[in-house]
Design a protein that fits this description.
The complex is a heterodimer of chains A (299) and B (553). Chain A is mostly helical and 299 residues long. Chain A contains 14 helices and no strands. Helices cover 45% and strands 11% of the residues of chain B. Chain B has a three-stranded antiparallel beta sheet. In chain B, strands 8-5-9 form a three-stranded antiparallel beta sheet. In chain B, strands 1-2 form a two-stranded parallel sheet. Classes of the chains: A mainly alpha (299), B mainly alpha (553).
Chain lengths: 299, 553
Amino acid sequence: MKIKKSKGRIVFEVVNYSILAFLAILCIIPFLHLLAVSFSADEFTSKGEVFLIPQGFTMQAYEYLAQKKEFFTALGISVMRTVLGTAISLIVIVMTAYPLSKTDGRFKGRTGFTWFFLITMFLGGGLFATYFLYKQLGLLNNFLVYILPGACDVWFVLMMMNFFRGIPKEIEEAALMDGAGQFTVLFKIYIPLALPSIATIVLFTAIGQWNSWFDGIMFMNDPSKYPLQSYLYTMIVSSDPTKQSGFTLTPEQLEALKNIGGKNLQAAQIFLGILPIALVFPFLQRFFVKGITVGSVKG
Amino acid sequence: MKKSRFVRLCCAMLALLFVVNLVSCFGGKDDNGPDYDDPTRNPFGKYENTVKITGVMEYQAHNDSRVPQSITPDNQAFIRLIKEKLNIEFTYLWKVPPTQYSEKLSLSMLSNELPDIFKVTASDYIALKEAGMLKNLATAYEYASDDVKEYLNRDPDVINRLTDSDGGIYAVPQYSDNRRGVPVMYIRKDWLDELKLSVPTTPDELYTVLKAFKQNKGATCGLAMSNKVSGSYFSISSYMNMFGSSPYSWLLGSDGQLHADEISENSKAALKWLNKLYNEGILAKDVAASTVDAVQADVLGGKCGVVIGPWWQFEYPLGTAIGNGDEWVAAEIPLAEGKSVVVDREQVEFYYVVNKACKNPEALFKMINMYIALDGMPEAAPENGYVWSWCPTQFYDPYDINEQFIHINKQLEIDPKAEGPAPENWTAHMKKLWNAYPEYLIWKEDNFATKYQENMFANIMTRVNKDGAWAQIVNVYDVKKRVVFDEFYGISTPAMSSKGAIMAQEVEEYYLKVIMGEKDIDSTWDAFVSSWRRIGGDDVTAEVNNWYAKQAK
């Protein structure tokens, strides 16, 4: 069915699209700037002369990075924690949300269990208690510290639970009537129907995993076990000369200050740090479709 | 600088109060058996049995391409050398970026996993000492090598203040020369020459020069000044120093009491002067939004002709501009009549301490001795896997720059072109400067045509030249003696910890508003001062003066 466009509609669309396009450009500019800086020579970047077009084009930063072992180790750890962390999170979240989405009549003690999870949303132990707990669980200096502690995100459990509840229970009843078990119902019916929610959870968990830096720094004893973001933190934030203590830099500190990779190197690292996760977006986009359940139940 | 240190102190104090209480419940390791003792007190004596020492590390990547790829903090040359020469087996319990060090250290204290030797701030040191967790180093001090002894006693007061009445001493302080706190003015000589102006010596003359720079050279950022009152460089306070003002310092008044300088008449005069500059468009329009990075871009981009800042500005970041052909020279800070610059009375960067349970406190000194002795030696070359920033016992002569300045200039009187070899007894840094000097002369006489070696030439302009940066400091500090001291060097007082952040915020906001003319200084100054007093200033002043009275005893 084609809607005939009135004049007002056309004006609206033009304005609408230009505002959206403007916003889109605003979002893209920082990336382009970063890219331009990473390809520019330092003498231009240090003067702040690079905006969107590289000045004094050079690949030097990328060439230097290509032989930097630490960068790739950290990248590998980040990829691993993102892939494994997201997969495990997803399994745990779905398996928790499914039973909790049932009514009290079918799952006795459901309210108790729900509160058990909910409480963790409001009360946390703080850093000291957390550190102790991890120490006793043997998670310190262990790759699993990236994955296990945050695997069951209660917020996402709630979201998933509500989504499951929104699925008409007639579908489940019909399946059970036809002899399906709970696992069949979950995997054959609920999960396919919940794809939009699952995509959302995958996206947020993956981004969360990719971006977290603090756990690496606090719970790992060696920088060689840092994920990419912690590595970037040590390279960029904590070597920031403006954070040094004033007049008293030692001769060696000064030497180090001058040897800090130029702005192009920092930009190149940040850009490569964003790239993999940015590439995930387009692949998940197609799942953000609602209304698959429309029409599955008559009446 | 003052503020960040201050805020850090506040945070550390709070964390420590909590931690130390807990730790004292857990108790330390049992210490049975006597400590190691070597009657000869040999500073470089090799242990017969391997001694195991643990430490922790503030980790920063080194970015030195000469260091082989396979080198890690655990296998670097220093660790290898102390095993070989001293029979010390050193291991790191953990490594963490400097910004997270104190947090991680608190966690270590809590979980009773303190290393044998580690670095602490003043407040950590006092808390640990009071909790009885530190080793008395009185005997260990006897193991210091001659060089280290000399360095530690550059300012004997520092060690004296640290020593208890019964002779106990629980830390090795790394302090630094308070000359380093004297700001230096850097100015575009090529612009001055072109406009036939001379180097300004007072704020009024500086004002004239800045006006000319703005009109004729298009200097849109008159002073290299960021929006931060304190900071390592480009801070507002370094400019306020021209008027003898130094926010967050405590100066002795004629009444024998210490007074906070952020509310002094000097500070008011300095702000008035900055406001005049702003009104005439000499300062950057968006001074409230000027980050250090943005200002740095202006300086390197030729939009700024005057920097007042620390002694090392030639080395960073002006060296880059000089390499590009901008001619910067150093000059004394143009002080207003009768005013003096404010420097810290005592500036201890950190303290090395030893865990009470450690049986070999002298190992700390042996390692410091080794670090000093290795300076400039071939086995300590980066190519051999030596990374100075990864050494657990970095230590430097507090008066290093002053020593370089004095000794090299003395030698230059005999050998003005540095053609002969450097004297044998010099430190490695002095020799490096000496060896680079002939090439520097060529570069200079060649009218900067030959290739500029950023590091070495900037070093020479800073530390050696009679018209260099350090020479200006010597003029102000030693020759003209135009310095006054910030007398408060204690740890943050309770009121500072609880109210300091709010007070600092008030100061920062008010200063920027006054500079930008949003508030008229004459009509609002008194209200600002009384508000500052009310929100905590009076309490802090009382505590600081209490502290000061105790020091005098």
